[in-house]
Design brief:
201 residues; eight-stranded mixed beta sheet; two-stranded antiparallel ribbon; 5 helices; 10 strands
């Protein structure tokens, strides 16, 4: 069964977007600073390794509707920017979008809209991912829900050396203790890449 990995970039003060994220500013105002490890990966071999791993090791992706709406919008994915940023794997992995209602006329093709809930989306993604990873890429609400429901095997956080002071926080929706086992830690000039394994409380 495919391993489920929640993978997201975060500021030092716990934000995964800056303030006021919208269809024009998917990462919020000033939120691009969280993703500097991605934008500078051509000049940082360790960051590049993480980015390429995201493309090559992913068998399927799960995302929330707000994340999809930005990706599908005018400032979202295009021929130059997509999953794993500018790294082009052999093909884009299957992507499952958790939503209450599928959009009528999406700009991008190849997305599966799941209206039966997060667990159903993760299960469908695992079935097509094979031995590769099922990656929950966000946003924060979807990752928090997945952690709360015990759907995540591995949590990867790319901790960026920036304090935003506002925006969308990770873990805000969690109201329970979750024990983690420390995995790999890789420090680069642009981020500290942290890997945790989930275990029962």
């Amino acid at each position: 069964m495919s391993t489920v990995v929640a993978d997201i970039s975060m500021s030092l003060d716990g934000y995964v977007t800056g303030p006021e994220p919208d269809l024009e500013h998917g990462l919020g105002l000033g939120g691009e600073a969280i993703q500097q490890w991605v934008f500078n990966s051509q000049n940082s071999p360790e960051d590049r390794r993480f980015l390429e791993s995201a493309g090559e090791g992913t068998g399927a992706v799960v995302m929330g509707r707000r994340t999809f709406d930005f990706i599908d919008g005018p400032n979202g994915w295009n021929d130059d920017v997509g999953y794993a940023y500018d790294h082009k794997p052999p093909s884009r992995p299957p992507i499952f979008v958790v939503t209450h209602e599928a959009p009528e006329t999406p700009r991008l093709a190849g997305f599966t809209f799941m209206t039966a809930g997060l667990a159903a989306a993760v299960n469908a993604a695992q079935k097509v991912a094979g031995q590769s990873e099922t990656v929950i890429m966000g946003g924060a609400e979807v990752i928090d829900q997945a952690l709360s429901e015990g759907l995540v095997d591995t949590l990867r956080i790319h901790l960026s050396p920036v304090i935003l002071g506002g925006g969308t926080r990770l873990f805000d929706l969690l109201d329970e203790r979750i024990l983690l086992t420390q995995g790999d830690v890789t420090v680069t000039p642009h981020a500290t890449h942290l890997t945790y394994q989930l275990k029962e409380t």
